[in-house]
Structures
1.
Amino acid sequence: MAKTLRTSGDYTIKTGSGSSGSNVIDLDSKTVRVRGDLIIDGDQTVINTATLSVEDTFIELARNNSGSILDAGIYVNRGTAGNNAAFYWDASEASFKAATTTDSAGTSPLTSATLANIRVAEPLDNTDAATKFYVDNIVSGGGFSIFFSGDDSTSITASPATTVYFSGGNNIITRATEEPDQININLRQNLTDINSISNGSTNGDLTLIANGTGSVIANNILTFSSNVSTPTAASVTKLYSKTVGGGGTGVFFINSAVASGTEDELISKKKATALAIALG
């Protein structure tokens, strides 16, 4: 028959010397239900059931951690199949890991961890993990979409040996080559809205080359910064600016084939007229 035991205070069941002894309380029943909170103080809790069902939406691990570096996660006993497995939070690297380990389930942080494979489905969202198939066939082989912001943000597909156009006022073209891996950038027609062009190499030349018999043309003012010293020139003519001399222009030129490579100053119209009058 049913029996109810009611007490107005705490109720203690103790066998032998209690928690320090070896005696056991055995509840032999189809169902044991605890209607209040259940607190278990001990070193180990063993659940010998075929199925564990938990109503909580989150399970908290390392509950009493006060800030020390602790690894925590799910530990799988693999028996004789090999080293045990764990999916856990590696506190030292602030990341989740899947690994096999020779450490026991009570070891934290793990001192032995060999990374294991994680199998996932093909990615559907931008934040999904990518599979090896996706990387090998979609990214490396099949091409992928690149979005360019600025004058033109249209989606294009790029793959090895595909020409990628950066549309807009600057008209820049790139071509990716498969082997060796490189991207060549070429100027297509006209460059606009350019404030400066500089050479990144120390003391390196900046060369402007016209096509065929074409010329390099400066439509507006061409400004020369003053040089402290005289440059050297082989069988080419160099034009530069220095302190104004007898020619009255401050624009000098030098060529090894002219006057034995001695620099000379371009003469102004005023100076030339005065010399012509003086020399008759």
2.
Amino acid sequence: MAAPIEGPEVLTGLLDAARSGDLAAFELLMRRHERMVLATALRLLGRIEDAQDASQEVFLRLYRNLSKVAGTQNLPGWIYRVTVNVCRDFQRRRPEVVFAADLSEFVSPGVDPQQAATDAERSRALDMSLRLLSEKERAALVLRDLEGLPTEQVAAILGTSQATVRSQIFKARIKMRGFMERYFRRRV
């Protein structure tokens, strides 16, 4: 039986090699996480150009700080934390962010055109509703509900308590639900 290609030993080896200056190993780590970083940044920033810039900054910070990542289990959490922080920096520099997130490149090809139009409308409404949220509410909601991370990990990434994360998500969901109801009521 063949050994798995992406086991923990392989990731540990890649991380160790990248720490010792192996650029090919770092590139493999980067490729493994680039989609996650770009999708998260796009959801937080709303513009593909900003998300791409933020992604580059995330991986630059990762490269500069490889020694601070304790191990492969901590790597995704560390990358999420850096992504959120980089996106916060971008938002502070550009406070008037216009959300126009196009998540279509993350959708499987060959989707029914009617379904694609419905999905695009939902995505547009989601993007607009994300604008209503505070920076902290948006980060908590994106990481927990859209990225699917457990509350404990979101709290660790955001440097806050689980109770605070649950509260932020609760408030964000109420705001978004109200917006979505008004948005789709007007569209009918």
3.
Amino acid sequence: MDCPGASVLDCFAGSGVLGFEAISRAARQLTMVEVERQAQDRLQQQVDRFECDAITLMCGDIVELIPGLTNQFNLVFIDPPYAMPELRYHVINSLLEHQRLIDRAKIFFEWPVAESFDLPVPELSWLKRKKAGQVNFGIAEWHPSR
């Protein structure tokens, strides 16, 4: 996925692999959110090793944090814990409500193959959907003018 100059939001940072990959591909700015304190501590150690001012790490519930974010994003990763599938919808709805997406923003979704997932609004359209083992993933694009 193209990242040069992108403002990236990793909603469920976990190990940080998606966000760190975006930074390594020349993203301009990365905001990582993690609710679990232990995972957040490990991420902070990795961020410190990067010595990169372009990374912001936040600890908390992404849905509660979105209204206070000041950035708009070109690229968003939404891959919540599989036991909480409703979070995909809560996050995207909050991003839209608070106008945190730039026109033509790309949103990466991940969900288990045993579960169906449909885009919640017509302004989002699939660019790609694939299956890898027991995981489905897809990239959607935001077009607010539709």
4.
Amino acid sequence: MEPMSKPEQRSILTLCGSLREKSFNQSLLDAATGLFPADVGFEPVLGLELLPPFNPDLDQEGDEPPAPVTRLRDQFRRADGILLSTPEYVHGIPGVLKNAIDWLVSSGSFVKKPIVLVSVCAGDGQQVQEMLNHTLTVLEAVVIKQLSFHAGDLKKGLSEAGVLQDQAILDRLSSATELLVSNLGVTEAVV
């Protein structure tokens, strides 16, 4: 009798569009990592501030891109899905997040990858959600869920240590992570 092979662990990237040390979006991602089932690993995308401003001259075919770009592309290449949480800056995508997306375009890193978009901001997050949804759809990602949280509500739900404790927010986040996990490896969203 042959031993049963261990199922391959699936991987989720958590990507925060804010560089703030005490970012509400990062707090939300931190809470989400505890909601994934045991057979799903997660990896935070770090170092967005190290990416040079996107310049196509630094990304010519056959050339080696800057080291932070190579690391970012490797992370996205290995990932099965993405949980992206971002604020909305001046009714748009934060520059550091847009820069990272621009560096990923030529790598095809988003093609057929399921993504849940979350925004935590002072407003309703509609503009950043619409812009990201449009951009990621052009890049052939599978946007399966969009959530918005008001920063004030999230702030009230955090402990002094910055841990999310608001059950209503955790429930919404849990249903989004379940949906993301159920869409790993599929080519069309299952909602």
